[in-house]
Specification:
Elements: E1 9-10, H1 16-25, E2 30-34, H2 41-51, E3 57-62, E4 72-75, H3 78-81, H4 100-113, E5 117-121, H5 125-137, E6 143-147, H6 163-177, H7 183-196, E7 200-207, E8 210-217, E9 220-227
Parallel strand pairs: 1-4, 2-3, 2-5, 3-4, 5-6
Antiparallel strand pairs: 7-8, 8-9
GO molecular function: pantoate-beta-alanine ligase activity
EC number: 6.3.2.1
Keywords: Ligase
C-alpha cells in the first residue's frame, strides 16, 4: 500500500504489522502509543513524547478515535486481538487484578504489531510496573518510555475532574508534603485525607519512591500515584 509519513494513515489490523516491519528494516524506531476510546490532554502528551524520539515512525492504536499528527493509526478491538476468545491469563503479582485485561491487551498489541518502542503514561503505575516485568520475563525486545501525568495546579490529572479524583489528589499531596518524615508519616497523612472524605481505600502503599493509591468512590474505582523523591 502507498504510505506517507505524518499523514495519520488508517491501516487495518492485518496490515499494520507489515508497515511496522518495513520501517524497522529501514532502521527507524517504530513507536506504539496505545490509546482507548477517549482523547484527552494526557493522550496528547503521550503522542508528543513518541514524536520526540529521533527518527520515529509513530503508530497509534485506538478504539474509534480519529487522530492527527501520527504516521499510522489502527482501530483495534478485543475481538480482533482474540477472535476465538482469550485463553491465557497473565499473573501480575501486583495489587489489583483489574489491571490484567489491560496488560494482556498491551502485550497482545506489542506481539501483533512488532514495534521497537512503546510510550505509556504513569497514571496507572501498577500497569506500568506489570508491563515492565512482563516484557522482561518474556524477553520481548521493546523499549518502554513512561510519561509523567499531566496535572492541574490542584494536583488533579487533566483527564479527570470528579470529586473522587480531587480527594485522591489531595491525599497524594498530603503524603508528598511529609515525605522527608518517612514512609509511615506519608501513609498516615494520605490515609487521614481519604478517611476524612469517607473514601473506601483498596490499597495505599509506598513502592520505591512512589506513593500509590487505589480507592472506591461511589462504586467506581480510582487509581493514582505520586513520586516522593
Amino acid at each position: 500500500m502507498a504510505f506517507q509519513l505524518k499523514q495519520s494513515t488508517s491501516v487495518d489490523f492485518a496490515t499494520i504489522p507489515l508497515v511496522a516491519r518495513a520501517f524497522r528494516k529501514q532502521g527507524k524506531p517504530v513507536v506504539l502509543v496505545a490509546l482507548s476510546t477517549g482523547l484527552h490532554a494526557g493522550h496528547i502528551r503521550l503522542l508528543d513524547a513518541a514524536r520526540r524520539i529521533p527518527g520515529s515512525v509513530v503508530i497509534a492504536s485506538h478504539e474509534g478515535i480519529e487522530l492527527t499528527g501520527v504516521d499510522a493509526q489502527v482501530n483495534i478491538s478485543d475481538e480482533q486481538l482474540w477472535p476465538h476468545g482469550r485463553h491465557v491469563r497473565l499473573d501480575t503479582g501486583l495489587w489489583h487484578e483489574d489491571i490484567e485485561p489491560e496488560l494482556a491487551r498491551l502485550i497482545a498489541l506489542i506481539l501483533h504489531i512488532g514495534p521497537s518502542d512503546l510510550v505509556v503514561g504513569e497514571k496507572d503505575w501498577e500497569l506500568l510496573l506489570a508491563l515492565q516485568k512482563t516484557v522482561r520475563d518474556l524477553h520481548i525486545p521493546i523499549k518502554i518510555h513512561s510519561v509523567p501525568v499531566v496535572r492541574n495546579a490542584d494536583g488533579v490529572a487533566l483527564s479527570l475532574s470528579t470529586p473522587g479524583d480531587i480527594a485522591i489528589a489531595a491525599a497524594l499531596t498530603a503524603g508528598v508534603f511529609v515525605a522527608d518524615q518517612g514512609t509511615q508519616a506519608v501513609l498516615a497523612a494520605a490515609h487521614s485525607v481519604l478517611a476524612a472524605a469517607n473514601i473506601e481505600v483498596e490499597y495505599l502503599d509506598v513502592v520505591g519512591q512512589r506513593l500509590i493509591v487505589g480507592a472506591i468512590v461511589d462504586g467506581a474505582r480510582y487509581i493514582d500515584n505520586a513520586g516522593l523523591a
